[in-house]
Design goal:
The structure is a homodimer. Chain A contains eight helices and twelve strands. Chain A has helices spanning about 35-45, 80-95, 110-120, 135-140, 180-190, 215-220, 245, 255-265, and strands at about 1-5, 20-25, 45-50, 65-70, 95-100, 125-130, 155-160, 170-175, 200-205, 210-215, 235-240, 250. The longest helix of chain A has 14 residues, at about 80-95. Strand 7 of chain A pairs antiparallel with strand 7 of chain B, so a sheet runs across the interface.
């Protein structure tokens, strides 16, 4: 079947966002990796509460909107979750379109349940707009599917260093374990993964400062891990046989110390 | 920190797409759940090869673009993967911006590896644009995070009916198992999941025809499964303790037979 799209059609039509609170996934960082729905609601928003992790260029979608930074950034300043919940409920009573902009997907390791509970308790109308979670954006940047028909038909996303308990060639992607890398390696090896299992690490996925490194589980045990990565930048850790071929194309993690020193000196 | 976005800024600026092949994730179905990057490249495309699963409204992003339907739709017509690979490589030699539009995320259970291999072998420049995978869109529609700090910090995505082997309250989301629902239930129960474990099923996620049902693993064993869902519509199956509260708000799967009969009669 072959056809030509009409030249007159510009883009699907949308109505203005209905009043309410929108939990919107900003995606991994790049401003154009938010969904069209997310960007359009940002343009309609009266007030936006955004995570400190959000890349600031994302806020260019807003126009004349009140912007409030909340949330945390790897160990630095954080608004308490309770206070964020209260701010959302208060804003819903004062403004028409309220946005809570969260990094990645709002429902993947984003503590959205607490915000949802607060909004439901206060009887506030709300919607959730999904976002590209970091694991998928990192896979796209790496050009490597985390699952393939031959090697793995299962993908596990986790924040727990030792939770991927299958050594049967399936793939695990770890979030928020940048300070527990040797724990990830130790546990996976203890659970039966080969010490030779490939690992890809990606920092600041989709942003201009993105860096990626490769190693094996065994190499992940070595070295002074906190010297590999920049302060406060999120890191995603991909583990599995599917990454074997990519490993040859990546900067070895062992060399990241050099990168790190150069970046430190420049900053 | 509080600030106001400047009224003059409209949206971030982007350049025209560079020549090459783009594997773009269309997201779950709704035209505005594609990423901004994906929509902009579609607008620049000379030719688009799209999955039969893509909702046609998505193609409104294209203008004056050659549209070619490829791929398969739950057991119906399918172009062979080998033929799709060849079409992409041939198109890259003839056109500047070639798009391969795939449902969901291109790298999650999308057979992208075969297309990537073909493009690399032919030395064709290509990029991957991630998309909202169905599990995340279904979670947003359900307003239920698949992971919560209390009940589950691990999410497994799989196409294998029996692959989620942990009964420790973690969450599994199954793709492409609509014809193996009783196998999913049998295997999970045999692996130690309680027969009472909550299950949410969602058909045609994010589209106007979206329907969702709830049951327990035990109830998933009963009934004539192929009568629950419409032909060729994709179904996602979410299993885990996190869905316990939602279960009360969903139409019981056991009642879906009535819905099915009404829909059948109307078509």
């Amino acid at each position: 079947m072959e056809q030509i799209a009409p030249r007159t059609v510009k883009s699907p039509k949308f109505n203005r966002a209905l009043p309410g609170v929108y939990l919107i996934g900003a995606g991994p960082g790049a401003a154009d990796l938010i969904t069209v729905r997310g960007a359009r609601i940002l343009a309609d928003a009266d007030i936006v509460f955004y995570d400190a992790l959000i890349d600031i260029s994302m806020l260019a979608w807003c126009s004349g909107t009140k912007l409030v930074q909340v949330g945390k950034r790897c160990g630095a300043h954080s608004s308490s979750q309770h206070f964020i919940n209260k701010q959302l409920v208060d804003a819903a009573r004062k403004y028409s379109v309220v946005v809570r902009l969260k990094g990645g997907d709002p429902l993947i390791f984003g503590r959205a349940q607490e915000e949802i509970d607060a909004l439901e308790k206060a009887n506030v109308r709300y919607e959730i707009v999904p976002g590209i979670t970091t694991a998928l954006a990192a896979s796209a940047e790496l050009k490597q599917p985390p699952t393939t028909r031959e090697l793995s038909r299962t993908l596990t996303l986790t924040t727990l260093p030792g939770r991927c308990t299958h050594a049967d060639h399936k793939t695990a992607i770890f979030y928020m374990v940048r300070d527990q890398l040797s724990e990830v390696a130790t546990t996976l090896i203890a659970q039966g993964h080969s010490a030779d299992t490939p690992v890809c690490l990606m920092e600041s996925v989709s942003l201009p400062v993105q860096r990626s490194f490769g190693c094996t589980l065994n190499e992940l045990l070595l070295g002074d891990i906190q010297h590999h990565f920049l302060d406060r930048q999120p890191v995603v850790v991909m583990v599995g046989e599917v990454y074997r071929k990519k490993l040859q194309t990546l900067t070895p993690l062992i060399d990241s110390q050099i990168h790190f020193n150069v970046l430190q000196a420049a900053s």
